[in-house]
């Protein structure tokens, strides 16, 4: 299916890893905030039924009357689904647990893998002139994750700096390859982001070495540290860049944003 978004329109990046607890949503929130901080117009699409990205950006449950569930099913247009956040230049389409039933409801839909793709290609959304659209995927290789991969130009894979970190990555890579072959031949891996890195811990350094040996230049130069401020920020419903701008976690996400924007056409 042809990509209807023009080359000058938003770059769509899926943040995906089927393993939970790897810093996926944390990366989606804080990378979005870091891109917004340097003047990029950013939309974060919360595609995780847990809705943690929505909560982490300050959207209370009662404010989520129109969500990604409505958006991908075509029951709501982009302008109805998009919410402002307290972060300048950063917007979100929020999620609720309604998304948890999407796999069952979409199974009989012939276009089930292209619903998000088509929703994001709404000309009205293009008029909003986002520079980046980031998709926070669920921690599974479900139909929602496939929708994100079909929609995206590239994928960021958060990988925790812990034992067995590389286990399971092969299944995600296989899914990416299958999506390329079947639906989105231009999908590429933007990079692997090593998260929860503790420079005092030999294991973190070993995981980094193994990841770079295995994946080479796919691994971002930036390391996301294990940082208490990063962990605390969601409980205050804000990105770490706003919660503690001077923290090592904030510096790391700013550096990651700079790595990504350096690749802009």
Briefly say what this structure is.
With 265 residues, this protein is an alpha/beta fold.
What's the average pLDDT?
91
Q: Briefly, what CATH class?
A: Alpha Beta
* CATH architectural label: 3-Layer(aba) Sandwich
Strand % is: 15-25%
Structural class: alpha/beta
Order of helices and strands: EHEHHHEEHHHEHEHEHEHHH
Give the spatial strand order of the biggest sheet.
Answer: 3-4-2-5-1-6-7-8
According to CATH, the homologous superfamily is: P-loop containing nucleotide triphosphate hydrolases
CATH topology: Rossmann fold
Number of domains: 1
Can you put this structure into words, describing what you see?
Helix 9 links the parallel strand 6 (154-160) and strand 7. The relative contact order is 0.19. This protein is an alpha/beta fold and 265 residues long. The protein has one domain (11-261): Rossmann fold (3-Layer(aba) Sandwich), CATH 3.40.50. Mean pLDDT is 91; it is low at 1-7. It is globular, with a radius of gyration of 17 Å. It is built from 13 helices and 8 strands. An 8-stranded mixed sheet has the order 3-4-2-5-1-6-7-8, sandwiched between helices. It starts with 10 loop residues before the first strand and ends with a helix.
Give the tags:
single chain, 265 residues, alpha/beta, Rossmann fold, eight-stranded mixed sheet, 13 helices, 8 strands, 17% strand
């Amino acid at each position: 299916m042809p990509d209807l978004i023009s080359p000058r329109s938003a770059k769509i990046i899926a943040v995906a890893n089927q393993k939970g607890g790897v810093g996926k949503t944390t990366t989606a929130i804080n990378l979005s905030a870091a891109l917004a901080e340097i003047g990029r117009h950013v939309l974060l699409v919360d595609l995780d039924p847990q809705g943690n990205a929505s909560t982490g950006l300050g959207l209370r449950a009662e404010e989520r009357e129109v969500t990604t569930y409505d958006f991908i099913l075509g029951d709501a247009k982009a302008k109805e689904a998009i919410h402002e956040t307290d972060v300048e230049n950063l917007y979100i389409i929020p999620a609720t647990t309604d998304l948890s039933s999407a796999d069952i409801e979409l199974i009989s839909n012939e276009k089930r893998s292209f619903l998000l793709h088509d929703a994001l290609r709404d000309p009205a959304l293009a008029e909003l002139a986002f520079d980046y659209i980031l998709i926070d995927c669920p921690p599974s290789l479900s139909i929602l994750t496939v929708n994100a991969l079909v929609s995206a130009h590239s994928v960021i894979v958060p990988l925790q700096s812990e034992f067995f970190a590389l286990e399971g990555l092969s299944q995600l890579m296989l899914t990416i390859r299958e999506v390329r072959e079947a639906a989105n031949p231009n999908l590429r891996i933007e990079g692997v982001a090593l998260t929860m890195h503790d420079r005092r811990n030999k294991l973190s350094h070993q995981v980094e070495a193994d990841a770079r040996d295995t994946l080479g230049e796919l691994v971002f130069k930036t390391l996301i540290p294990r940082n208490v401020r990063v962990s605390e920020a969601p409980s205050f419903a804000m990105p770490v860049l706003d919660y503690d701008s001077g923290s090592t976690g904030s510096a790391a996400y700013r550096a990651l944003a700079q790595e990504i924007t350096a690749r802009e056409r």
